[in-house]
Amino acid sequence: MKALSRIYTALIFIILYIPIVVLMLFSFNSTANTGDLTGLSLYWYRELFSSPDTFNALKNTLVLAVSASVISTVIGTAAAVGLCKFKKNFFKNSVLSVTNIPMMNPDIVTGISMMLLFVFLGTLLGRDEKLGFTTLLIAHVTFCLPYVILSVRPKILTMPRSLPEAAQDLGCTPLQSFFKVELPQILPGVISGFILAFTLSLDDFVISYFTTGNDFQTLPLLIYSMTKKEVKPDIYALSTLMILTVTVLLILSNVSSKEKSTERRLTL
Amino acid sequence: MEKTRKNLGRLIAAPHILWSVLFILAPLIFVVYYTFTDAYGTFTWENIFALKEHANTFLISVSLSVIATFICFLVGYPLAYLIAGYKEKSQKIMITLLMLPMWTNLLIRTYSMMAIMDDGGFLNSILGALNLGKVHLIGTKGAVIFGMVYDFLPYMVLPIYTIISKLDKNLLEAARDLGCNPFQVLWKVVLPLSSGGIISGITMVFVPSISTFYISQKLGGGTFELIGDTIERQFQNVSTYNVGAAISLVMMILVLVSLAVMNRFTKEEAS
Q: Within its chain, how far is the Cα of A31 from the centroid?
């Protein structure tokens, strides 16, 4: 029984990883052949780095992800804190339901619905280029917001209500009580919301595809346009680098969370 | 004084409320508006009637994504159950291994599937080397279903695993003490208790499967279209925006209704 369960688990993980391993292997292929390994070389990596598109897309992706996650974290945290002060009523429930729409709706619907709005507004304002960085940023903030609120809200709901009240009784202004008392309490939720927003923005393709213009390309969009053309291992090279980056980040975040948990045990 | 202070506190939710109205509600209103107007902005039922042409595509999309979701459940549930039975350290490693493909861009994963299944791809060159002939996979429905399962399996496993790993171990022990064999424990105790995880797993696989437009383009080889592809094609050209909006509206209603039904289902289960 135990052996059987081991074999099953191993089999699934092997199937899950075969495509990724094959892709990494062929990124070192010496020819453009994607069926046979003809020899090892770094040709496709050199090819990749000699193209200005790659660096441009990388820069765009990072600029977009940082701005979208910062904006959505600020707006979302404020919303989560503010919404708590409402009584349970129709208004609060509707705000929360509307917030969740981008999380439940298929990405393609979110993407095209925003595109329709942006095209309309662009025509209204008489702009030639209706889609671009600004529209992409608005779209990313919009689909990140529900995830930020989702990570911050539980922290606020479990925080004792008396804490900010006590701070204000002791002479804090509401602003001081927020920054000195409430924020440190909910900080873990805010940080995980920020990280979630950042990774969602980095990874998004579908919504970006519909809300960006010709002059702003991110890495997922670059991969899409590369896969539309002839199959060449330079995509494999780019993908390998992206997978390795994610792996390193994942290991680092695991290690840091482990350190944090032992720290907490020590202070307790 | 107390009241104004409270209102001030509420005010910081205002940017988000404004943002939601502008960029979540207003776009949806535009989808509805485009659905019921023609290219000149006059009211019409034409786009709704045009949906008939795409009925077949809807049918294919729904059936393929239902099959993919079902396979994900059949493969993913035992995996989640087995992972939860390992030592804590192995559990952590396996969950990380499961999350890594999730964090890898969907385009890359699908593309690497294509490189393997392609006629001149890795699988066929291995089969050729073994003198086993060739298999034609790209362009078949099976390849698209396999792509969906491969891409979305972790989304099924993770929520189920989260619930199972938090189950009260005493319950399982009690079932065993009272004479259940391992399969009865699974069927009568673990499965009903993990229904919440199953429901969120199903939605997390079903929604992206039914709306995908990349998987079918790459693994379907352009031989048939899914509803996501149809929507994407309509939005390539300004003149077909209205039909595209109508199809999107139908898909959105389809997804939101099935989500609502499933939520209801879990609530009843919980009570």
A: 34
Highest average pLDDT, of A113-127, A231-245, B4-18, comes from A113-127
A221-264 confidence digits (pLDDT tens): 998 888 887 667 788 888 888 888 888 877 777 766 665 554 44
Residue in A with minimal Cα distance to B11: A82
CA-nearest of A60, A143, A54, A137 to A100 is A143
Q: For chains A and B, what is the number of CB pairs under 8 angstroms?
A: 223
Q: Which domains does chain A have, with CATH numbers?
A: 54-230 (1.10.3720.10)
Residue of B nearest to A222 (CA): B107
pTM: 0.88
Each domain of chain B, given as residue ranges in start order, spans 64-270
d(CA B95, CA B110): 21
Buried b (16+ CB within 10 A) or exposed e, A80-118: bbbbbbbeeeeebeebbebbebbebbbbbbbbbbbbbbb
Interchain CB contact of B54 with A (< 8 Å): no
Nearest to B16 among A145, A168, A205 (CB): A145
B207 touches chain A (CB under 8 A): yes
Superfamily of domain B64-270: MetI-like (1.10.3720.10)
Nearest to A77 by CA among A149, A146, A139: A149
Q: How far apart are CA A171 and CA B190, in angstroms?
A: 52
Note the ipTM here: 0.87
Chain B: residue whose CA lies nearest to A117:
B27
For every residue of B83-109, DSSP letters joined together read: HHTS-HHHHHHHHHHHHHHHHS-HHHH
